[in-house]
Design a protein that fits this description.
By secondary structure, this protein is of the alpha/beta class. It has twelve helices and twelve strands. The strands form three sheets. Strands 2-1-3-4-5-11 form a six-stranded parallel sheet, sandwiched between helices. Strands 7-6-8-9 form a four-stranded parallel sheet, with helices on both faces. Helix 5 crosses helix 12, helix 6 packs parallel to helix 7 and helix 8 runs parallel beside helix 9. This is LacI family DNA-binding transcriptional regulator.
Length: about 350
């Protein structure tokens, strides 16, 4: 007679605390106390529980424990297009820092609309997330208010809000330095390449550069791509070169825009970098150092930004009534061949 085929398990078969209790010959509550720091339990009982847990491969269900306690170690990281540019580096740095802190980072890739952002916030509140870190440029006010009502710590990165802890780079200082550098190199037809999405980070860099150029006795034409990505840089380059006399010095509000600009300038407009056009970016992405670009830029340290965000979470949890803080992270000028 042929053996009947074995049916695959219908789902994960995790070892339960009750199974550990039965293996150790103790009560279910004894297992719970054994895995609760500071709980009262005899040494011999604890040793029995730990041996049984090791033999069975038991792991505490931290999520269930957190939900019972009406809190968890989950920290939500909310980002739009988290795979793009500096955000990808920042998500990696934040995840590493949160794990070291004892948290479980949960990345939620949300859209740009208020409805999508609110759905994300509702999910985090439903899972009793310990805190939320928002990387997206423009979270709706309803999201901020929802976190404030529940007392959930909230940190914004790349945007500030009067009632919320925030982390921003020194955007204005870097933009002024870029203006001075390009003018000192002999730039006469200057341009700023930005993006129409108009996040606070982009706006600060755009405004500071244009003002600095005016203070230096010159003018800068402004062109913007639809988004602050490689395609946006190509679009901005086409607009610049369609206007007649092309610029000889350009500041791009991030490296992705600069790379799109450089490739179009070389391949479609026959421009040499930096002989015909100097270019400065922002972020110092890994590709910026490649021989293809050798991009002069500003290094925005994702580890330092993540550390500031974690410090703000710690401060908020230890003192919920403290006044909101805006932290500025310094950036470092990285001179290379492009500008």
């Amino acid at each position: 007679m042929t053996d009947e085929p074995r049916q695959p398990p219908s789902g994960p078969n995790f070892v339960s605390a009750q199974q550990v209790a039965e293996r150790a010959g103790v009560s279910r509550s004894a297992v719970s106390r054994a895995f609760t720091p500071g709980a009262s339990i005899g040494r011999e009982t604890r040793e029995k529980v730990m041996k049984a847990a090791l033999d069975l491969g038991y792991q505490v269900n931290d999520l269930a424990r957190g939900l019972i306690a009406r809190q968890s170690r989950l920290v939500g990281i909310i980002a739009t297009r988290p795979e793009v540019g500096f955000r990808a580096l920042l998500v990696a740095a934040l995840s590493k820092a949160l794990i070291a802190r004892g948290n479980l980072p949960v990345l939620l890739n949300t859209g740009d609309t208020e409805r999508e952002m609110q759905a994300t916030q509702n999910m985090l509140l439903g899972y009793r997330a310990e805190a939320t870190i928002v990387l997206s440029g423009s979270p709706p006010e309803t999201m901020l208010e929802g976190a404030r009502r529940t007392g959930q710590p909230l940190v914004l990165i790349g945007r500030s809000d009067p009632g919320t802890d925030s982390v921003l780079a020194d955007n204005e200082g870097a933009a002024r330095q870029a203006a001075e550098r390009l003018v000192a190199r002999g730039g006469r037809r200057l341009a700023l390449v930005g993006a129409s999405i108009g996040t606070q980070t982009i706006v600060e860099r755009e405004r500071a550069f244009v003002e600095a150029i005016r203070n230096l006795g010159a003018e800068a034409q402004v062109v913007r791509g639809a988004d602050a990505d490689y395609a946006g840089g190509e679009t901005a380059a086409r607009r610049l070169f369609d206007r007649g006399a092309p610029p000889d010095a350009v500041f791009c509000v991030n490296d992705l825009l600069a790379m799109g600009l450089i490739d179009h300038a070389r391949q479609s407009a026959g421009r040499r970098i930096p002989e015909d056009m100097a270019v400065i970016g922002f972020d110092d992405l890994p590709d910026a150092a490649r021989s293809t670009y050798l991009l002069t830029t500003f290094f925005q340290d994702p580890v330092a930004v993540a550390a500031k965000a974690i410090a703000l979470l710690d401060r908020r949890q230890s003192n919920p009534a403290a006044a909101p803080v805006l932290e500025r992270v310094p950036v470092a000028f990285v001179p290379r061949e492009s500008g």
